Predict the 3D structure of the following.
Amino acid sequence: SRVLVIQNEHIRAKFDPDTGLLVEMENLDQNLVLPIHQAFYWYNASMGDNQSSQASGAYIFRPSRQKPLLVSGWAQTHLVKTALVQEVHQNFSAWCSQVVRLYPGQRHLELEWTVGPIPVGDDWGKEVISRFDTALETKGLFYTDSNGREILERRRDYRPTWNLNQTEPVAGNYYPVNSRIYITDGHKQLTVLTDRSQGGSSLSDGSLELMVHRRLLKDDARGVGEPLLEAGSGLWVRGRHLVLLDKAQSAAAGHRLQAEKEVLAPQVVLAWGGGAPYHPE
Amino acid sequence: YGDSVPLNEAMAVLQHHDAVSGTSRQHVANDYARQLAAGWAPCEVLLSNALAQLSGFKEDFTFCRELNISVCPLSQTAKSFQVTIYNPLGRKVDWMVRLPVSKHVFLVRDPNGTTVPSDVVTLPSSDSQELLFSASVPALGFSIYSVTQVPGQRPQAHNLHSIFQKPS
């Protein structure tokens, strides 16, 4: 069949044969199937407008419009399958690519994203996100962690401690994600683990997004005195999102154990070998 | 002599919200990175001394800081080398090791000298290869694997499927 599939004993991931994008994830152990569309988008950073002169900058995230633009609706793909790894290499653009990976025994999908240098030749600052869209009926709720320990429930356009008059429909719903963000319909849960702190949100039911990189052209007048604009051609950044699909009631065990392995990952040290014994005897 | 104080101090300086969230001028962000990098070097000596004492052999340990972009001069040139994997978790982990290597076939042995399955994968849209093997590492401990190049053999290509043309 033309459908691109990678799988191991626990997980199967399907990719659209025409666009090369991820379209479905399956937890084989629990017979869970979730149609899921993952792609990269970018918000056009505000330089100030008639509502407010506030620009997007180091302190402030303020996109100029609610709808982000797609980096690309299709990817050039390569499929690699060996006994020890199955991976789909996706090339979205000159400055955005990703490898979707499965190792034997792994209970999550590894998305290694590489973003940058972000082009700003069009004089638009860009705030790049990875967004996962599903049909989960999440009723405006999503969950983000606080320093990897406490999970906080977030409700769109709402604050538990005061009556919010939402003036920033995107940025006003972004929260810090130190290690994980998830959405659930009470039966299935989609969790994304991060390898560093990122901004994240769920701006529509069934959707989940994480900001991976930014490059802006105007200072936000909060004290830094320069835009968030790396010198030269700009930085390119590589990181990983680990995607877990579980039953809602058993999801915590999965993401808590995996997040520990992510944060306290093994360290590799190399040596030529054949060194002298440390102890004389 | 190794020393972790410079790295401790760099981490202490980087508790400032500017370092945590990037709300600083570029030259300040560059200086944060400089302090961290300066702290790594003496810390790597400290780790090497600890590994030498614990493993019982004085090795010239090498820390490849750019494994995430498949750069590691030692594994890319050596015909044989050792891989020490340290696990900071309080439980045993199985972990897939990926190392950039030259275009050859390699034999990987575990700490007991038993050969473990390994693969060499050619990274699409680049001409570099990575050696993969699964390592089992004890809780709060380390395992030492040995890697040896098998002369005269070439890795088989694994790229099975490529979509180049843009869909209609």
Observations:
- Helices of chain A lie at 251-263.
- The longest strand of chain A covers residues 32-44.
- The mean pLDDT of chain A is 96.
- DSSP finds one helix and 20 strands in chain A.
